[in-house]
Amino acid sequence: MAHQTRTEQQTTADDFFRTEIRTGRIERAEVFAKARKPAYKLWIDFGDLGVKRSSAQITARYTPDDLIGRTVVAVTNFPPRQIADFMSEVLVLGVPIDGTDDVVLLAPDADVPLGARIS
């Protein structure tokens, strides 16, 4: 099978470095019953930045119990988004699996400080 090259929209290094991507640990996770698509409400500890909330469509792979204590990577400086009755403050990063509802969370492969900025 030949690899297809897709033209991606280019950005500058300055644009990338303005995006704050940080590590956090999920403290609490619960089913988000009011979400239009299956999702969880997450409360994530980012160390000195405090606990931030996120709505994440990661129900195909993870249960709420699977998520507690997991270190994740998230964008922390996007504007908050109101989703139903929940304010999502950060965007948890993951890799969607084509043709499925599955998303694999991005995470460091060793212990890192909470709130550490990805560079």
TrEMBL record:
Pfam families on file: tRNA_bind
The entry's keywords: RNA-binding, tRNA-binding
Molecular function, one GO term: tRNA binding
Keyword Cell membrane: no
KW RNA-binding (keyword) present: yes
Residue stretches making up the TRNA-binding domain: 15-119
Recorded superkingdom: Bacteria
Species this chain originates from: Glycomyces terrestris
Descriptive protein name: tRNA-binding protein
